[in-house]
Structures are given as C-alpha cells and as structure tokens.
Amino acid sequence: MSESTQLTDDFVRVCAVEELPVETAALAEINGVPVAMVRDDKGVVHAVNDICSHGQVSLAEGDVEGCTIECWLHGSRFNLDTGEPTGLPATQPIAVYPVIVQDGDVYVSVSAS
Ligand code: FES
C-alpha cells in the first residue's frame, strides 16, 4: 500500500507475495481479525476485513476483478483501496488495513482499525 509506511511491531507477516496469485483472495486471521488478502489485477496486495458489511459472509470466497472484490451472496463489490461498496445492497464500507511488501513477504497491521 503506502511506500512510506514503516514496518513497525504492529505488522504481522502473513504470507509470501507469490502465494497470492493475481486476481485471487485468501483468508487469513491476523490477531483474531478475519482478513481477506487480495492481489488485484495489477499485482498490488490489499488487506480488507473479510466479513461483508451487508451480512456475515466471507469476502475471501468472492471474485476479484480489477481493484474490487465481490461478495458472492448478493453481489456487492468493494473497492480494495477504500473499502467502499461500489453497488447495492451493501451501503457500509469494510475496513482496509495497511500492507507492506518487503523482500517478497507481505505484512499487515490490523491494530489501527
Ligand atoms: S451479504 Fe454481502 S452483499 Fe449481501
């Protein structure tokens, strides 16, 4: 995400970048928080809260398209940079967590949310 973000003690190593193929999502639990790890169509890694803001559904099971992930239940898409839904029925954003990629590894902090 931000190139200026420092790799502080808040950040947890989640996986290697190559473990996340482009336009896929995977579920991770970071300090008890369910997180959808997503690699967008440009290869950028994102971390967002895994639970759809419209219902108790795992977003990591949805399709990734461009810089969005789709909730498989009712079809709302969420912007991976902002967490904002791009269409109904979801109206509330999901949390977006800072990501650092360093030496081929992905680190995420959920502590600021
Ligand atoms: S549960 Fe995700 S859009 Fe309805």
Written overview of the protein:
The model has no long low-confidence stretch (mean pLDDT 94). This protein has one domain (5-108): Rieske [2Fe-2S] iron-sulphur domain (Rieske Iron-sulfur Protein), CATH 2.102.10.10. It is mainly β and 113 residues long. Helices cover 0% and strands 37% of the residues. β9 (99-102) and β10 (105-108) form a beta hairpin. It contains no helices and ten strands. It is globular, with a radius of gyration of 13 Å. The strands form three sheets. The chain has a four-stranded antiparallel β-sheet with strand order 2-3-4-8, with no helix packed on it. It has a three-stranded antiparallel β-sheet with strand order 1-10-9, with no helix packed on it. It has strands at residues 12-16, 24-30, 33-39, 45-49, 64-65, 68-70, 77-79, 96-97, 99-102, 105-108. The chain binds FE2/S2 (inorganic) cluster. FE2/S2 (inorganic) cluster is lined by residues 52, 54-55, 57, 71, 73-74, 76, 89-90.
